[in-house]
Amino acid sequence: MRRFADVAGAIAWRTLKKYATTPSLLLPSLVFPLFFFVAFAGGLSSVSRVPGFDFPSGYTSFQFVFVFLQSSAFGGVFTGFGIAADFENGFSRRLLLSAPNRLAILGGYVLAALIRAVITGVVLFVVGLIGGMRIDGGVLDVLGLIALACGVSLAAALFAAGVAMRLRTIQAGPAMQMPVFLLLFIAPVYVPLDLLTGWVKTVARVNPVTPLLGAGRDFISGGTADLALAFGVAIGLVVVFALWAVRGLRSAEAAG
Amino acid sequence: MNAAPLRVQIGELARRSITQTLRQPALIVPPIFFPLMLVAVNASGLQAATNIPGFPTDNYVDFAIAVAFIQGALFAMINAGSALARDVETGFLRRLAMTPMQRPALLLGHLTGVLLVALGSSLIYVLVGWIAGMHMAAGAGGVLGVLVLAMLIALGFAALGALIGLRTGSGEAVQGVFPLFFVLLFLSSSSLPRPLIEHDWFRTIATYNPISYLIEGIRALIIEGWDGEALALAFGIAIAIAVLALAGASQALRTRLVRT
Q1: Of B45, B176, B199, the CB nearest to A45
Q2: Does any CB of chain B come closer than 8 Å to the CB of residue A30?
Q3: Is A63 exposed, middle or buried (0-12, 13-18, 19+ CB in 10 A)?
Q4: Which residue among A43, A50, A201 sits closest to B52, beta carbon to beta carbon?
Protein backbone atom coordinates (compact mmCIF):
# COMPACT_ATOMS: atom_id res chain seq x y z
CA MET A 1 0.00 0.00 0.00
CA ARG A 2 2.88 2.29 0.90
CA ARG A 3 4.46 1.65 -2.50
CA PHE A 4 1.16 2.42 -4.21
CA ALA A 5 0.85 5.72 -2.35
CA ASP A 6 4.47 6.67 -3.10
CA VAL A 7 4.16 6.04 -6.83
CA ALA A 8 0.69 7.59 -7.13
CA GLY A 9 1.80 10.62 -5.13
CA ALA A 10 4.90 11.12 -7.27
CA ILE A 11 2.93 10.84 -10.53
CA ALA A 12 0.23 13.19 -9.28
CA TRP A 13 2.85 15.69 -8.09
CA ARG A 14 4.69 15.61 -11.42
CA THR A 15 1.44 15.99 -13.40
CA LEU A 16 0.23 18.89 -11.27
CA LYS A 17 3.61 20.63 -11.33
CA LYS A 18 3.65 20.42 -15.11
CA TYR A 19 0.06 21.73 -15.18
CA ALA A 20 0.84 24.64 -12.85
CA THR A 21 4.07 25.68 -14.58
CA THR A 22 2.94 25.40 -18.20
CA PRO A 23 0.69 28.33 -19.14
CA SER A 24 -0.55 26.56 -22.28
CA LEU A 25 -1.95 23.77 -20.04
CA LEU A 26 -3.09 25.89 -17.11
CA LEU A 27 -4.84 28.77 -18.86
CA PRO A 28 -7.18 26.87 -21.21
CA SER A 29 -8.44 24.64 -18.40
CA LEU A 30 -9.24 27.70 -16.28
CA VAL A 31 -10.33 30.14 -18.98
CA PHE A 32 -12.54 27.87 -21.07
CA PRO A 33 -15.05 26.98 -18.33
CA LEU A 34 -15.25 30.67 -17.41
CA PHE A 35 -15.83 31.57 -21.02
CA PHE A 36 -18.58 28.98 -21.41
CA PHE A 37 -20.17 30.23 -18.21
CA VAL A 38 -20.08 33.85 -19.41
CA ALA A 39 -21.31 32.97 -22.91
CA PHE A 40 -24.16 30.71 -21.78
CA ALA A 41 -25.30 32.50 -18.62
CA GLY A 42 -24.81 35.97 -20.09
CA GLY A 43 -25.86 35.48 -23.68
CA LEU A 44 -28.78 33.14 -23.21
CA SER A 45 -30.37 34.46 -20.03
CA SER A 46 -33.57 35.46 -21.81
CA VAL A 47 -34.15 31.75 -22.44
CA SER A 48 -35.47 31.71 -18.87
CA ARG A 49 -38.50 33.65 -20.24
CA VAL A 50 -39.50 30.68 -22.38
CA PRO A 51 -42.93 29.38 -21.25
CA GLY A 52 -42.40 26.26 -19.13
CA PHE A 53 -38.91 27.22 -17.94
CA ASP A 54 -39.42 26.91 -14.21
CA PHE A 55 -35.94 26.71 -12.65
CA PRO A 56 -36.33 28.70 -9.42
CA SER A 57 -32.74 29.88 -8.90
CA GLY A 58 -32.40 31.73 -12.22
CA TYR A 59 -30.60 31.06 -15.47
CA THR A 60 -27.11 31.84 -14.13
CA SER A 61 -27.40 29.04 -11.56
CA PHE A 62 -28.99 26.76 -14.17
CA GLN A 63 -25.98 27.19 -16.48
CA PHE A 64 -23.45 27.14 -13.65
CA VAL A 65 -24.21 23.49 -12.91
CA PHE A 66 -23.64 22.49 -16.52
CA VAL A 67 -20.35 24.40 -16.78
CA PHE A 68 -19.23 23.05 -13.38
CA LEU A 69 -19.77 19.43 -14.45
CA GLN A 70 -18.36 20.13 -17.91
CA SER A 71 -15.14 21.60 -16.51
CA SER A 72 -14.79 18.58 -14.21
CA ALA A 73 -15.15 16.25 -17.18
CA PHE A 74 -12.67 18.17 -19.30
CA GLY A 75 -10.15 18.28 -16.45
CA GLY A 76 -10.21 14.49 -16.69
CA VAL A 77 -9.90 14.52 -20.47
CA PHE A 78 -6.92 16.92 -20.36
CA THR A 79 -5.22 14.52 -17.97
CA GLY A 80 -5.66 11.85 -20.66
CA PHE A 81 -3.82 14.17 -23.09
CA GLY A 82 -0.94 14.28 -20.59
CA ILE A 83 -0.84 10.48 -20.34
CA ALA A 84 -0.76 10.19 -24.14
CA ALA A 85 2.06 12.75 -24.34
CA ASP A 86 4.00 10.81 -21.68
CA PHE A 87 3.70 7.66 -23.79
CA GLU A 88 4.71 9.52 -26.94
CA ASN A 89 7.91 10.94 -25.43
CA GLY A 90 8.86 7.63 -23.81
CA PHE A 91 8.42 8.73 -20.19
CA SER A 92 5.63 6.24 -19.51
CA ARG A 93 7.62 3.30 -20.82
CA ARG A 94 10.42 4.07 -18.37
CA LEU A 95 7.79 4.51 -15.68
CA LEU A 96 6.29 1.09 -16.43
CA LEU A 97 9.74 -0.43 -16.01
CA SER A 98 10.54 1.31 -12.75
CA ALA A 99 7.23 1.45 -10.84
CA PRO A 100 6.81 -1.37 -8.28
CA ASN A 101 3.03 -1.05 -8.56
CA ARG A 102 1.78 -0.15 -12.01
CA LEU A 103 -1.79 0.43 -10.94
CA ALA A 104 -0.38 3.30 -8.90
CA ILE A 105 0.60 5.02 -12.16
CA LEU A 106 -3.06 5.11 -13.11
CA GLY A 107 -3.95 6.16 -9.57
CA GLY A 108 -1.52 9.06 -9.73
CA TYR A 109 -2.90 10.41 -12.99
CA VAL A 110 -6.47 10.13 -11.71
CA LEU A 111 -5.57 11.85 -8.44
CA ALA A 112 -4.05 14.71 -10.44
CA ALA A 113 -7.24 14.97 -12.51
CA LEU A 114 -9.29 15.21 -9.34
CA ILE A 115 -7.11 17.97 -7.88
CA ARG A 116 -7.27 19.86 -11.19
CA ALA A 117 -11.05 19.62 -11.12
CA VAL A 118 -11.10 21.01 -7.58
CA ILE A 119 -8.89 23.97 -8.56
CA THR A 120 -11.06 24.80 -11.59
CA GLY A 121 -14.21 24.25 -9.53
CA VAL A 122 -13.12 26.72 -6.85
CA VAL A 123 -12.36 29.39 -9.48
CA LEU A 124 -15.73 28.74 -11.13
CA PHE A 125 -17.62 28.97 -7.85
CA VAL A 126 -15.97 32.31 -7.04
CA VAL A 127 -16.72 33.72 -10.50
CA GLY A 128 -20.27 32.33 -10.35
CA LEU A 129 -20.97 34.00 -7.03
CA ILE A 130 -19.50 37.29 -8.28
CA GLY A 131 -21.64 36.94 -11.41
CA GLY A 132 -24.86 36.72 -9.41
CA MET A 133 -25.35 32.97 -9.13
CA ARG A 134 -27.93 32.07 -6.50
CA ILE A 135 -27.43 29.04 -4.28
CA ASP A 136 -30.78 28.16 -2.73
CA GLY A 137 -29.63 24.76 -1.49
CA GLY A 138 -27.93 24.18 1.85
CA VAL A 139 -24.39 23.16 2.70
CA LEU A 140 -25.20 19.48 2.20
CA ASP A 141 -26.62 20.25 -1.23
CA VAL A 142 -23.45 22.08 -2.24
CA LEU A 143 -21.37 19.16 -0.98
CA GLY A 144 -23.60 16.85 -3.03
CA LEU A 145 -22.92 18.93 -6.14
CA ILE A 146 -19.17 18.83 -5.47
CA ALA A 147 -19.30 15.05 -4.95
CA LEU A 148 -21.12 14.67 -8.28
CA ALA A 149 -18.47 16.81 -10.02
CA CYS A 150 -15.71 14.65 -8.50
CA GLY A 151 -17.46 11.55 -9.82
CA VAL A 152 -17.69 13.09 -13.30
CA SER A 153 -14.03 14.08 -13.20
CA LEU A 154 -12.98 10.58 -12.10
CA ALA A 155 -15.07 8.90 -14.77
CA ALA A 156 -13.76 11.19 -17.53
CA ALA A 157 -10.15 10.80 -16.39
CA LEU A 158 -10.46 6.99 -16.31
CA PHE A 159 -12.11 6.97 -19.74
CA ALA A 160 -9.39 9.22 -21.22
CA ALA A 161 -6.64 7.21 -19.49
CA GLY A 162 -8.02 4.02 -21.04
CA VAL A 163 -7.94 5.57 -24.51
CA ALA A 164 -4.49 7.12 -23.98
CA MET A 165 -2.98 3.85 -22.73
CA ARG A 166 -4.38 1.88 -25.64
CA LEU A 167 -3.42 4.30 -28.43
CA ARG A 168 -0.33 5.83 -26.74
CA THR A 169 -0.21 8.92 -29.00
CA ILE A 170 -1.37 12.50 -28.57
CA GLN A 171 -3.16 12.12 -31.92
CA ALA A 172 -5.71 10.16 -29.92
CA GLY A 173 -6.86 13.52 -28.46
CA PRO A 174 -10.11 13.69 -30.47
CA ALA A 175 -10.94 10.09 -29.45
CA MET A 176 -10.83 11.23 -25.81
CA GLN A 177 -12.46 14.62 -26.28
CA MET A 178 -15.26 14.02 -28.77
CA PRO A 179 -17.25 11.32 -26.93
CA VAL A 180 -17.19 13.40 -23.74
CA PHE A 181 -18.11 16.56 -25.63
CA LEU A 182 -21.02 14.83 -27.37
CA LEU A 183 -22.32 13.19 -24.18
CA LEU A 184 -22.25 16.54 -22.40
CA PHE A 185 -24.00 18.50 -25.13
CA ILE A 186 -26.66 15.93 -26.03
CA ALA A 187 -28.21 16.60 -22.65
CA PRO A 188 -30.48 19.35 -21.27
CA VAL A 189 -27.78 22.03 -21.56
CA TYR A 190 -29.81 25.18 -22.30
CA VAL A 191 -33.28 24.26 -21.08
CA PRO A 192 -34.80 21.54 -18.86
CA LEU A 193 -35.42 18.13 -20.42
CA ASP A 194 -39.15 18.78 -20.90
CA LEU A 195 -38.42 21.77 -23.14
CA LEU A 196 -36.02 19.93 -25.45
CA THR A 197 -37.33 18.92 -28.86
CA GLY A 198 -36.43 16.47 -31.61
CA TRP A 199 -33.74 13.82 -31.55
CA VAL A 200 -31.71 15.49 -28.80
CA LYS A 201 -34.65 14.99 -26.42
CA THR A 202 -34.79 11.29 -27.30
CA VAL A 203 -31.06 10.85 -26.74
CA ALA A 204 -31.02 13.06 -23.63
CA ARG A 205 -33.60 10.78 -21.97
CA VAL A 206 -31.10 7.90 -21.98
CA ASN A 207 -27.93 9.97 -21.68
CA PRO A 208 -26.24 9.30 -18.29
CA VAL A 209 -25.31 12.98 -18.09
CA THR A 210 -29.00 13.97 -17.84
CA PRO A 211 -29.61 12.63 -14.30
CA LEU A 212 -26.28 14.10 -13.19
CA LEU A 213 -27.28 17.53 -14.50
CA GLY A 214 -30.77 17.20 -13.04
CA ALA A 215 -29.44 16.31 -9.59
CA GLY A 216 -26.82 19.06 -9.74
CA ARG A 217 -29.50 21.62 -10.56
CA ASP A 218 -31.72 20.29 -7.77
CA PHE A 219 -28.79 20.63 -5.38
CA ILE A 220 -28.17 24.26 -6.26
CA SER A 221 -31.84 25.22 -6.20
CA GLY A 222 -32.61 23.32 -3.02
CA GLY A 223 -34.95 20.96 -4.86
CA THR A 224 -35.44 17.26 -4.23
CA ALA A 225 -32.69 15.46 -6.12
CA ASP A 226 -32.99 11.82 -7.14
CA LEU A 227 -29.86 10.91 -5.19
CA ALA A 228 -30.02 7.18 -5.85
CA LEU A 229 -30.21 7.65 -9.61
CA ALA A 230 -27.57 10.41 -9.82
CA PHE A 231 -24.98 8.80 -7.59
CA GLY A 232 -25.81 5.35 -8.99
CA VAL A 233 -24.99 6.67 -12.47
CA ALA A 234 -21.83 8.44 -11.24
CA ILE A 235 -20.54 5.37 -9.40
CA GLY A 236 -21.49 3.13 -12.31
CA LEU A 237 -19.54 5.30 -14.75
CA VAL A 238 -16.50 5.33 -12.45
CA VAL A 239 -16.57 1.52 -12.08
CA VAL A 240 -17.02 0.86 -15.81
CA PHE A 241 -14.27 3.29 -16.82
CA ALA A 242 -11.96 2.05 -14.06
CA LEU A 243 -12.16 -1.42 -15.64
CA TRP A 244 -11.61 0.19 -19.05
CA ALA A 245 -8.54 2.08 -17.77
CA VAL A 246 -7.03 -0.97 -16.03
CA ARG A 247 -7.39 -3.01 -19.21
CA GLY A 248 -5.79 -0.07 -21.06
CA LEU A 249 -2.87 -0.24 -18.62
CA ARG A 250 -2.52 -3.97 -19.27
CA SER A 251 -2.54 -3.23 -23.01
CA ALA A 252 0.27 -0.69 -22.53
CA GLU A 253 2.23 -3.20 -20.46
CA ALA A 254 1.83 -5.84 -23.16
CA ALA A 255 3.01 -3.40 -25.82
CA GLY A 256 6.21 -2.88 -23.81
CA MET B 1 15.01 30.79 -68.66
CA ASN B 2 11.69 32.64 -68.41
CA ALA B 3 9.44 32.22 -65.37
CA ALA B 4 6.04 30.62 -65.93
CA PRO B 5 3.11 33.08 -66.21
CA LEU B 6 1.43 34.06 -62.94
CA ARG B 7 -1.71 32.00 -63.62
CA VAL B 8 0.39 28.88 -64.21
CA GLN B 9 2.25 29.49 -60.96
CA ILE B 10 -1.04 29.96 -59.09
CA GLY B 11 -2.41 26.83 -60.76
CA GLU B 12 0.58 24.71 -59.74
CA LEU B 13 0.51 25.83 -56.11
CA ALA B 14 -3.28 25.55 -56.02
CA ARG B 15 -2.99 21.96 -57.28
CA ARG B 16 -0.52 21.20 -54.49
CA SER B 17 -2.77 22.86 -51.90
CA ILE B 18 -5.86 20.98 -53.13
CA THR B 19 -4.02 17.63 -53.25
CA GLN B 20 -2.65 18.17 -49.73
CA THR B 21 -6.14 18.98 -48.47
CA LEU B 22 -7.88 16.07 -50.18
CA ARG B 23 -5.29 13.61 -48.86
CA GLN B 24 -5.98 14.53 -45.25
CA PRO B 25 -9.47 13.70 -43.95
CA ALA B 26 -8.57 15.68 -40.80
CA LEU B 27 -8.67 18.83 -42.93
CA ILE B 28 -12.04 18.01 -44.50
CA VAL B 29 -14.14 16.20 -41.89
CA PRO B 30 -14.01 18.66 -38.93
CA PRO B 31 -15.09 21.74 -40.95
CA ILE B 32 -18.15 19.80 -42.11
CA PHE B 33 -18.96 17.74 -39.04
CA PHE B 34 -18.39 20.11 -36.09
CA PRO B 35 -20.48 23.09 -37.27
CA LEU B 36 -23.37 20.82 -38.26
CA MET B 37 -23.16 18.98 -34.95
CA LEU B 38 -23.35 22.27 -33.06
CA VAL B 39 -26.30 23.43 -35.17
CA ALA B 40 -28.09 20.12 -34.57
CA VAL B 41 -27.56 20.28 -30.82
CA ASN B 42 -28.49 23.96 -30.55
CA ALA B 43 -31.50 23.62 -32.84
CA SER B 44 -32.98 20.97 -30.56
CA GLY B 45 -31.81 22.54 -27.32
CA LEU B 46 -32.87 26.07 -28.12
CA GLN B 47 -35.99 25.48 -30.25
CA ALA B 48 -37.93 26.60 -27.17
CA ALA B 49 -36.24 30.02 -27.48
CA THR B 50 -38.35 30.70 -30.58
CA ASN B 51 -41.27 31.15 -28.15
CA ILE B 52 -39.65 34.27 -26.69
CA PRO B 53 -41.70 37.28 -27.86
CA GLY B 54 -39.85 39.04 -30.67
CA PHE B 55 -37.87 36.00 -31.86
CA PRO B 56 -37.69 36.40 -35.65
CA THR B 57 -38.57 32.83 -36.68
CA ASP B 58 -40.41 29.81 -35.35
CA ASN B 59 -37.71 27.40 -36.56
CA TYR B 60 -34.39 27.59 -34.71
CA VAL B 61 -32.61 25.82 -37.60
CA ASP B 62 -33.25 28.94 -39.73
CA PHE B 63 -31.62 31.00 -37.02
CA ALA B 64 -28.71 28.71 -36.10
CA ILE B 65 -27.52 27.54 -39.53
CA ALA B 66 -25.77 30.88 -40.19
CA VAL B 67 -23.30 30.11 -37.39
CA ALA B 68 -22.13 27.00 -39.25
CA PHE B 69 -20.77 29.16 -42.10
CA ILE B 70 -18.71 31.24 -39.67
CA GLN B 71 -17.39 28.14 -37.93
CA GLY B 72 -16.47 26.73 -41.33
CA ALA B 73 -14.55 29.96 -42.01
CA LEU B 74 -12.71 29.56 -38.70
CA PHE B 75 -11.58 26.10 -39.82
CA ALA B 76 -10.45 27.67 -43.11
CA MET B 77 -8.36 30.09 -41.05
CA ILE B 78 -6.71 27.32 -39.04
CA ASN B 79 -6.08 25.11 -42.06
CA ALA B 80 -4.61 27.93 -44.17
CA GLY B 81 -2.43 29.17 -41.32
CA SER B 82 -1.22 25.69 -40.36
CA ALA B 83 -0.35 24.83 -43.98
CA LEU B 84 1.74 27.97 -44.41
CA ALA B 85 3.37 27.57 -40.99
CA ARG B 86 4.26 23.99 -41.94
CA ASP B 87 5.85 25.25 -45.17
CA VAL B 88 7.92 27.68 -43.11
CA GLU B 89 8.86 24.97 -40.58
CA THR B 90 9.80 22.36 -43.19
CA GLY B 91 11.80 24.82 -45.30
CA PHE B 92 9.51 24.49 -48.34
CA LEU B 93 9.05 28.25 -48.42
CA ARG B 94 12.82 28.78 -48.28
CA ARG B 95 13.35 26.49 -51.27
CA LEU B 96 10.50 28.16 -53.12
CA ALA B 97 12.10 31.55 -52.53
CA MET B 98 15.04 30.47 -54.68
CA THR B 99 12.71 30.00 -57.69
CA PRO B 100 11.18 32.80 -59.76
CA MET B 101 7.80 32.14 -58.07
CA GLN B 102 5.81 35.37 -57.52
CA ARG B 103 4.37 36.22 -54.10
CA PRO B 104 0.71 36.51 -55.18
CA ALA B 105 0.95 33.04 -56.68
CA LEU B 106 2.27 31.63 -53.45
CA LEU B 107 -0.47 33.17 -51.34
CA LEU B 108 -3.41 32.60 -53.69
CA GLY B 109 -2.26 29.08 -54.49
CA HIS B 110 -2.14 28.24 -50.82
CA LEU B 111 -5.59 29.65 -50.14
CA THR B 112 -7.21 27.75 -53.01
CA GLY B 113 -7.30 24.32 -51.36
CA VAL B 114 -8.73 25.76 -48.17
CA LEU B 115 -11.38 27.74 -50.04
CA LEU B 116 -12.36 24.63 -51.98
CA VAL B 117 -13.10 22.88 -48.67
CA ALA B 118 -15.00 25.99 -47.51
CA LEU B 119 -17.15 25.91 -50.66
CA GLY B 120 -17.85 22.19 -50.29
CA SER B 121 -18.69 22.66 -46.60
CA SER B 122 -21.00 25.60 -47.36
CA LEU B 123 -22.89 23.56 -49.96
CA ILE B 124 -23.30 20.77 -47.40
CA TYR B 125 -24.53 23.24 -44.73
CA VAL B 126 -27.18 24.51 -47.16
CA LEU B 127 -28.18 20.98 -48.13
CA VAL B 128 -28.37 19.68 -44.55
CA GLY B 129 -30.19 22.85 -43.45
CA TRP B 130 -32.70 22.35 -46.24
CA ILE B 131 -33.23 18.70 -45.22
CA ALA B 132 -33.67 19.85 -41.60
CA GLY B 133 -36.45 22.21 -42.65
CA MET B 134 -34.57 25.45 -43.33
CA HIS B 135 -36.66 28.01 -45.17
CA MET B 136 -34.80 30.44 -47.45
CA ALA B 137 -36.76 33.70 -47.39
CA ALA B 138 -34.63 35.21 -50.17
CA GLY B 139 -35.50 32.33 -52.51
CA ALA B 140 -33.14 30.50 -54.84
CA GLY B 141 -31.09 33.67 -55.35
CA GLY B 142 -30.65 33.74 -51.59
CA VAL B 143 -28.76 30.44 -51.71
CA LEU B 144 -26.31 32.03 -54.13
CA GLY B 145 -26.10 35.10 -51.88
CA VAL B 146 -25.35 32.92 -48.86
CA LEU B 147 -22.64 31.02 -50.74
CA VAL B 148 -20.98 34.20 -52.05
CA LEU B 149 -21.00 35.80 -48.60
CA ALA B 150 -19.76 32.59 -46.97
CA MET B 151 -16.86 32.33 -49.44
CA LEU B 152 -15.96 35.97 -48.89
CA ILE B 153 -15.92 35.39 -45.14
CA ALA B 154 -13.88 32.21 -45.58
CA LEU B 155 -11.39 34.10 -47.78
CA GLY B 156 -10.98 36.80 -45.13
CA PHE B 157 -10.48 34.30 -42.29
CA ALA B 158 -8.17 32.08 -44.37
CA ALA B 159 -6.05 35.13 -45.20
CA LEU B 160 -5.98 35.98 -41.48
CA GLY B 161 -4.75 32.45 -40.81
CA ALA B 162 -2.11 32.86 -43.52
CA LEU B 163 -1.02 36.13 -41.94
CA ILE B 164 -0.60 34.46 -38.53
CA GLY B 165 1.09 31.40 -40.02
CA LEU B 166 3.59 33.52 -41.94
CA ARG B 167 4.28 35.92 -39.09
CA THR B 168 4.86 33.21 -36.50
CA GLY B 169 6.04 30.31 -38.66
CA SER B 170 4.51 28.04 -36.03
CA GLY B 171 1.57 25.69 -36.45
CA GLU B 172 1.11 25.66 -32.69
CA ALA B 173 0.70 29.44 -32.65
CA VAL B 174 -1.94 29.19 -35.40
CA GLN B 175 -3.84 26.54 -33.40
CA GLY B 176 -3.55 28.78 -30.36
CA VAL B 177 -5.60 31.60 -31.91
CA PHE B 178 -8.56 29.29 -32.60
CA PRO B 179 -9.94 29.59 -29.04
CA LEU B 180 -9.76 33.37 -29.30
CA PHE B 181 -11.92 33.43 -32.41
CA PHE B 182 -14.19 30.77 -30.94
CA VAL B 183 -14.75 33.11 -27.99
CA LEU B 184 -15.55 35.95 -30.41
CA LEU B 185 -18.08 33.70 -32.14
CA PHE B 186 -19.87 32.98 -28.87
CA LEU B 187 -19.75 36.62 -27.73
CA SER B 188 -21.88 37.62 -30.71
CA SER B 189 -25.50 37.29 -31.74
CA SER B 190 -24.84 33.63 -32.55
CA SER B 191 -27.42 32.19 -30.12
CA LEU B 192 -30.02 34.94 -29.79
CA PRO B 193 -30.89 38.11 -31.74
CA ARG B 194 -29.12 41.13 -30.20
CA PRO B 195 -32.35 42.85 -29.08
CA LEU B 196 -33.26 39.73 -27.08
CA ILE B 197 -29.96 39.52 -25.18
CA GLU B 198 -30.91 40.56 -21.67
CA HIS B 199 -27.56 41.54 -20.18
CA ASP B 200 -26.47 45.00 -21.33
CA TRP B 201 -22.75 44.18 -21.20
CA PHE B 202 -23.21 41.11 -23.38
CA ARG B 203 -25.40 43.00 -25.87
CA THR B 204 -22.76 45.77 -26.04
CA ILE B 205 -19.96 43.29 -26.77
CA ALA B 206 -22.13 41.58 -29.40
CA THR B 207 -22.89 44.96 -30.98
CA TYR B 208 -19.20 45.87 -31.29
CA ASN B 209 -18.25 42.36 -32.40
CA PRO B 210 -17.97 42.29 -36.23
CA ILE B 211 -18.81 38.58 -36.26
CA SER B 212 -22.38 39.49 -35.22
CA TYR B 213 -22.85 41.34 -38.52
CA LEU B 214 -21.38 38.51 -40.60
CA ILE B 215 -23.84 36.08 -38.98
CA GLU B 216 -26.72 38.53 -39.32
CA GLY B 217 -26.03 38.98 -43.05
CA ILE B 218 -26.37 35.26 -43.74
CA ARG B 219 -29.29 35.03 -41.33
CA ALA B 220 -31.08 37.90 -43.07
CA LEU B 221 -31.09 36.05 -46.38
CA ILE B 222 -32.54 32.96 -44.68
CA ILE B 223 -35.11 34.56 -42.36
CA GLU B 224 -36.02 37.99 -43.76
CA GLY B 225 -35.06 38.01 -47.43
CA TRP B 226 -33.06 40.76 -49.13
CA ASP B 227 -32.44 43.06 -46.16
CA GLY B 228 -30.25 45.80 -47.66
CA GLU B 229 -28.80 47.10 -44.39
CA ALA B 230 -27.87 43.68 -42.97
CA LEU B 231 -26.34 42.62 -46.29
CA ALA B 232 -24.42 45.88 -46.76
CA LEU B 233 -22.94 45.53 -43.28
CA ALA B 234 -22.09 41.86 -43.75
CA PHE B 235 -20.53 42.26 -47.19
CA GLY B 236 -18.75 45.48 -46.13
CA ILE B 237 -17.18 43.85 -43.08
CA ALA B 238 -16.33 40.64 -44.95
CA ILE B 239 -14.64 42.62 -47.76
CA ALA B 240 -12.77 44.78 -45.24
CA ILE B 241 -11.48 41.71 -43.37
CA ALA B 242 -10.47 40.02 -46.64
CA VAL B 243 -8.65 43.09 -48.02
CA LEU B 244 -6.83 43.89 -44.78
CA ALA B 245 -5.90 40.27 -44.10
CA LEU B 246 -4.68 39.68 -47.66
CA ALA B 247 -2.59 42.85 -47.51
CA GLY B 248 -1.19 41.80 -44.12
CA ALA B 249 -0.46 38.26 -45.33
CA SER B 250 1.24 39.61 -48.46
CA GLN B 251 3.41 41.90 -46.33
CA ALA B 252 4.21 39.03 -43.94
CA LEU B 253 5.20 36.85 -46.89
CA ARG B 254 7.48 39.60 -48.21
CA THR B 255 9.15 39.88 -44.78
CA ARG B 256 9.45 36.09 -44.49
CA LEU B 257 11.08 35.83 -47.94
CA VAL B 258 13.49 38.69 -47.16
CA ARG B 259 14.51 36.86 -43.96
CA THR B 260 14.99 33.73 -46.05
Answers
A1: B199
A2: no
A3: buried
A4: A50
